[in-house]
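[scheduler] slot 2 assigned
[scheduler] job type: sequence-to-structure, two independent chains
[scheduler] chain ordering preserved from manifest
[runner] begin chain α
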Amino acid sequence: MLPSCCSSLLLVLSGPLRARGHNGAEDDHVVGSGSHPSPAVPSRLFCFCLSPNRSEWRARERAKPIHSLPPRPRTRPLAEPSSRTAAALPLLMPPPVLRLVPAAAGAAPPRARGGRTGAGRGGGVRLRARAAAGEATPAPSRTQVIMDKISGGSEEVGGAGGAYSYSALKRLDQIWSSICGPQVDSKVPEVVTRIQGPSADSNVGAGSEIFDLIVCGGTLGIFVATALSSKGLRVGIIERNIIKGREQEWNISRKELMEIVEIGILSEAELEQIISSDFNPNRCGFEDKGEIWVENILNLGISPAKLVETMKERFISSGGTIFEGKSLSSIYVYDDRAVLKLSDDDFLSCRLVVDAMGNFSPIVRQIRSGRKPDGMCLVVGACARGFEKNTTSDIIFSSSSVNRAGNSGVQLFWEAFPAGSGPNDRTTYMFTYVDPKIGGPKLEELLEVFWNLMPAYQDVVLENLDIRRVIFGIFPTYRDSPLPAAFDRILQVGDASGIQSPVSFGGFGSLTRHLGRLSNGIYEAVEGDFLDAHSLRLLNPYMPNLSASWLFQRAMSVRPDINVSPTFINELLFANFQSMQKLGDSVLRPFLQDVIQFGPLVKTLGLVMLTRPQLLPSIFKQVGLGVILDWSGHFLMLGFYTFLSTFIDPVTRSWVESLPPRDKYQWKQYLEAWRYGAGLDYRQGE
């Protein structure tokens, strides 16, 4: 069984590699300072970097390509983030652009993908050495120079992409360093307090406005709120900033976008209005080993600004209430309701609190007791103007084997998509999977690598690009996901619940897949008053396809203590993609859209075993026997859930409809868990 499971691991590693950061990961923009100083960190942040020249280096630096310049020492100490400023970390650069000085005549452009670039000179921005107390101050980093050039003059908004300062990057790197620290933070503030008895026995929140449901976090929470408000519930949203989408596109397929139309909160005419770009075909490739081209996977760029504004108007017109500029301070849960204290000492009451505050929700942090994530995806990138070849996209591309970022070895992956802001505008992402431990690469170090390698990957000259927006972010993953409800009357949704694939960036794409299931289930729970923790756990159930996916992140990360070939990860991915391509779209397409299914997995398992058995020893080294055994259990449960959903579900649905309300609610959630946990919610041929 072990070789079979190991080979199966080979397959799924390459499947759900659809990076979701460009799909708008959720933010924890709701918790303010109050009495809880722990910073709320967003799930997605942004930055850009360039190499400056000090005056005394100009002559020798002028002869060097930009990619060979060493990292510059920092000029600022890391500041302790306040809870209010740290909560506003997600960045997306504003419209002002930075024009890089063209390279001197004769500078050769990059020749091939995957190699090191030799184009350009030491950057288009030169800095004067500053003297302080008779000594020269170290030059700022390339990242700081470009961030300072681009960041001025735009209003900050809530949600992913709302802030744009270099200091926010430093704060995130500081938080990332603290996550990598040797000790778990034992001083996790308690946002939620459970108080036995009815709320009438307490004066807390007496006379406050009462809702059926309050959603904390509005950028993506607006979708859940609108779906439930449209069903007739009285819904409120708390958002510490304003509910407004960013300018940078989210990338998604039309099939996934139609999920919102089917729910009834977006019309097809409105859908067409929010699409800003449409492109095909879409490429997967691995270090010159071969390329696979597919159609209609992440091939749409949609405008978050237009989509969120449309949802906001729909929500208000359906009777919803928005509390913008208000932060959550604490929640008191009574037997009959939850009372929310806001940052301005106002109170709101509701029957159910929906936590849509993203990966770093303070409620989730309390539930997990500040536990360190089991894995992390680090993402950097930029949107730039100046790409002449700009009609196709890359879903996943690896242009090299293991690289160095800071003091760490990393396997880097790329994504690239045409942007809707102009015919020559293109967004490029570089991401890697790492373990959260001391010595891990910092985002600023990854940004330096990004600007060194991106020109060769995209076949462009860096100095010829207008940098319009820059991107960076961290995405934690936990093995025990989705996160079950820990309190009565509080439910996590979206990235806060861990429902996203651990090898994706989460956000909007993963939310659309579960929006129908969640909105129906939450409505039934509220209507039936099934709001105890046990009943709410049924809405975030165990899903074997998701649990199996987490283990593949481990195999895609570089492990310095393991003696495997530096080309192993690329060989592994290409072997699996090649096998899935041979087996057809019914196998390949679900994997590319974050859906693991038992049938396609078994088919590819056999083909990989027959064609590439020599990879198995490296799999055991890279992943470990214990991890493979654990994965085997989820693999068997995936088959069991497939059987239950295929054969038991059809013959029990009529019986379920005849049950008493509470039993009916529970069994309907069991049936949904089987279907989604087996990946059978994905409909072939669409």
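[runner] end chain α
[runner] begin chain β
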Amino acid sequence: MFILSFTAYEFYIGSITDDSIFLHKVAGIALLVVTLIHILIRRKKLKKLTQEFFNIFSQNKKVTLDSDMDRLLDSLEPKTLKQVCDTFNLDTKELDKIFSQNNISYESLEQTLKEISKINSFKTFAIIVKIIEYKAC
């Protein structure tokens, strides 16, 4: 990059030589080759970013944050609190403690995490994180 900038500056001030033109071309080609190699190595990431870009602007598809996070949300959102307790090996008293500490209210153990997040204006992922944090301590 420095070589390209330097030779471009030389061209701008008018003191360019045949050697600096050659050097500028070599540096430009090298930059293109390195860019292509980088794209080939990172093509999965590029494909994912391109897909997310089009999903954002098309407004037809769900924008994915991270595939693992999406899988976690998709698997736990439709579960009832009782099923969540079984999944995380919690009893209902522990779940009450987690929810009361974080000002999350619920009516029954048959409500899903999605319903609870809507009632409390809380993101489902944040509720799951609170449960995992409790289990980690």
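[runner] end chain β
[qc] chain β: Residues 67-136 form one domain.
[scheduler] slot 2 released
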